[in-house]
Amino acid sequence: MTIRVLICDELPIIGDGLRTLLDAVPDIEVIGTTDNGMEAIVLVRTARPEVVVTDLNLRTISGLEMIRRLAKEDTPPSIVVFTEADADKTVSDVLHAGVSCLLGKDARPQELIAAIQAAATGQTVLAPSIAQRLVGWFRAQPEPQEAAMCPGASELTSREREVVRMVARGMSTEEVARELIIGEATVRTHVYRVRTKLGVRDRAELVSLAYRSGLIN
Description:
The protein is of the alpha/beta class. The chain has helices at residues 12-23, 37-47, 63-70, 88-96, 109-120, 128-140, 146-149, 158-168, 173-180, 184-198, 203-213; strands at 3-8, 28-34, 51-54, 78-83, 101-104, 125-126. Strand 4, helix 4 (88-96) and strand 5 form a beta-alpha-beta unit. Helix 2 (37-47) packs parallel to helix 3 (63-70) and helix 8 packs across helix 11 (203-213). The chain starts with a strand and ends with a helix. Keywords: DNA-binding, Phosphoprotein, Transcription, Transcription regulation. InterPro entries: CheY-like_superfamily (IPR011006), NreC/VraR/RcsB-like_REC (IPR058245), Sig_transdc_resp-reg_C-effctor (IPR016032), Sig_transdc_resp-reg_receiver (IPR001789), Tscrpt_reg_LuxR_C (IPR000792), WalR-like (IPR039420). This is Two component transcriptional regulator, LuxR family.
């Protein structure tokens, strides 16, 4: 499959250099280059590239704003951000905007090609330095403490947890009874016991506590 690629960079010399590099790759077709964020959106709508390779510095609108707008298209392209900006706020913004791959401009040519190929198949690639920081951040987060957040959770039986999951999905007493092949009175008994163990007053509070405590993902 040929991957159709649009290149966006504020500096024409970089855009042209990337085009020269990618034109030599058999499975990649560069459909255009631009330094203009608004023009890039028009090109995406008309030429339908599978992947957009972009810097965050563009004319008319920023690369980040362009990415956010492209995410709202009916068939949004995959985005490879190729930039020198790697501050934590920038990384957070582009990942939340739906970017598939994030590389620094110190990436080697083969790394960029591999990122484009990965993005075209829905995969995610991050620059090693960014990936290392994200892993460090993740490891620094406290582990979920279900028992501390919900002391009665450890007292629930497997059947009571099953009932909580179904109630959290919005199932009625009758629906839970049919699903588990038990009587409605038995379901109400399970719900009553769960509420007693967790110290909640009604179903709404039960569902809220179940999600907050990690009983329900």
